Amino acid sequence: MVRGIEPTSQITPEVMADILNSMSELVIYQDTENKLLWANRAAAESVGSSPQELVGRQCYEIWHQRREPCVGCPVVEACKTGQHQEAEITSPDGRVWLIRGDPVRDVNGNIVALVEVTLEITEQKKTTDALRSISAEWRTTFDAISDNVYLLNTEGKIQRCNIAATKLLGKPFSEIIGQSCWKLMHGTSAPIKGCPVTRMLVTHQRESIVLPLRGQWFEVTADPVLDEAGNIVGAVHVLTDITERKQAEELLRQSEERFRNFFENEPMYCYMISSEGIVFDVNKAALKKLGYSKEDLIGRHWKMIYAPESQTKERQLFAEGLKIRTIKDEEMVIATKQGNRRIVLLSVNTIEDETGQILYLLAVQEDITEIKKAEEALRKANRTLMALSACNSAMVHTTDESELLKEICRIIVEIGGYRLAWVGFAEQDQRKTVHLAAQAEYEEELLKDVKITWGDTKRGRGPIGRAILTGAPCICKNIQDEPYYVPWRDVAIKCGYASSIVLPLNAGGRAFGALNIYAGETDAFNQEEIRLLMELSDDLAYGITALRTRAEREQAEKALEESEKRYAALFESAVEGILVVDIETRNIKYANLSLSNMMGYEEQELKQMRFDALIPKDSLEDLLSLFYVHVRGENIFSSEIPFLRKDGEKIYVDVKTLPVLQGKITNIIGLFTDVTQRKQMEEEQKRSAQKLLKAMESTIEAMSATVETSDPYTAGHQRRVTGLASAIAKEMGLSEEQVHGIGLAGIVHDIGKIYVPAEILSKPDRLSEIEFNLIKMHSQVGYDILKDIEFPWPIAQIVLQHHESMDGSGYPSGLSKEAILLEARIITVADVVEAMASHRPYRAAIGLDGALEEISRNSGILYDADVVDACIRLFREKGLKLE
Fold this sequence. Notes:
This protein is α+β, with helices and mostly antiparallel strands. It folds into six domains: 13-127, Beta-Lactamase (2-Layer Sandwich), CATH 3.30.450; 145-247, PAS domain (Beta-Lactamase), CATH 3.30.450.20; 272-367, Beta-Lactamase; 374-552, 2-Layer Sandwich (Beta-Lactamase); 574-674, PAS domain (Beta-Lactamase, 2-Layer Sandwich); 690-876, Hypothetical protein af1432 (Orthogonal Bundle), CATH 1.10.3210.10. It contains 33 helices and 25 strands. The strands form five sheets. It has a five-stranded antiparallel β-sheet. The protein is elongated and about 205 Å long.
């Protein structure tokens, strides 16, 4: 019996045998040597034998074709250990068996037999291995997922997580399993606001949120796990690291922002346009230049910004751009809101999605208006330079003025590219007409009745008259608008002229004509072009002047040749002496007969002499200095020059000298007139005049002394006034002759007081009005005494005016400012200063400081300011004493 199975009345050995034979497991009863004692039907059938055939044989021989027990046989191990053993054994045919071995003991507890129960588990093993493989694969896959995956129960506790989750949390599995996800992830005791797990439990569907966690960004999702009845039994909680995506999104946002900044701040004009040509965005540069607002353009077809002449091309290019997806640097004309034209280079690129579908078109316009203007200006400048060069060449090679003018006009039109050119000269007739001298591309209707003048009339105030009168260019940018162009406007426009420039032909500080140039477009003349055309007109004026000068010189040379013959005879027959001297050597080159007689030499003798030999030694230096003035090209007339005759007699000659120019001054021609007798007579007259003047001065002094004897209080007054007035005159820089005259006037300035009673002059009390008026008459009386005496100076007028004042308040005539002689103004100041500084019968002396204060206070009012300043300087700066 197997230990643990007690026989009962119900279970007999036979019943037990039947039970064991009915089992599908292989049941074997064997001794301790592994020999079979009994086997059930399943065991026998497994090897195609009957149970009786198996008894006495070793089990490892029967089932494993071995001569010894299998390694790890559980039956052998059960015999050894006395305990239940089991193991999986694979038979040679590849089947897998689960073998269980149990010892059978006797009543004494000794192992007497072994029971082996074997179950073939080949298919079960395959299934188990497959499940184990699937589980391992699932585990590997689960752990290989880069996202953080958690399996949660309905309470939010973590049941399982992958390796990525442990790395994120920084904890091993043991510290994660059983913990709530919000505690581990957020450190909170409850779900955070917006927790997708909490929301999922309500909605029974996936919920998600994007959160920052541990310096990274995650998209967090929660999906429900449902049982067969559809009840939530858990959740799959996934944290996907979207940091790179967020960074990419940020980079995309920054890129879009940079694009927006570029778009808005790009100086070129940028537009976003639909494939139908509708504007849905435009940058600031375009709006500012075009003068539109965004509301004006957005939603409108962008053809509205193009000038009419470019709209057809815009349609063609737009259609082509949709096909070839790009347009590069097409020149177009756009129009601002105010109607101004701008020239742009248009480039268009399509912006497409990943499928190649056009999202919109990005159009960029580079404004090249100024560049085109500069190019046009350069083209015009080059054209004008070529015309200028050709005109200069014509001026060099043409010798006839009329032909030159025609050629210049032709060059301006044909090479310069202008519509019309003509030259007019300013006539000096009464009507001051402008004479048409030459033209090119002549428009008969414009010029046949031009009737242009440079006089002060309506037509004279047109562009040509203004240029001639001012000597400056007159530019008409638009003939249609210029008011001064009215007399010629209709005809000019009919002829196709839109603008013009009139350039004066200047010579000798005035305009003698004008060069007129017309263009077919408005504002055709830029600054550089004007500068070059002014240079051309200056060159033309010089060329005309040069041709005229050459013609005049040729005529003059011819006339000179003819006149030389006439003047040679006159030269010899002239009454005046004529002398020609070399400027460098001072040798006499020629002398006529009159000069030979004047100097007492033969003509041949003079030709062998130097000019110096005719001059007295004491006058040589002065005369040679005058001689060399001719080096500067000046004419000289010298009076009473001393010369020496051959016999040693000194004679006096009036000499007029002229330089002779032959490129430079080469000779001097002198015209000599003997004035010796006149000189002698003048010397005699001068001596007589000096004697007379001396006698007159003595008489004046005697008259002055007479006045002072009648007024003892004013004794020395006239002398002191004379001294002070003379000093003031010298301080003001007057000539010696003027100072001398002022001195004589000062001596007699009060001579009229001789007719004033002495008791009035010396009266100590205040004068009555009649007495004062009597004294005031002394100026007029003095004038009456002196007026008939012929002095070299206006003595009588000085005496008459010495009590006049600058503001007209003086007497006797009430003269003011410049109507009073300067000499009288000087006497007035000297008279006041001396009178106030000296004692008078009716008052004590005020003193010099008081006198100077008086004239300073009334400077420019009563007294001449310059005279006052000079007087004060003498006393305060130069220490003059009033004596």
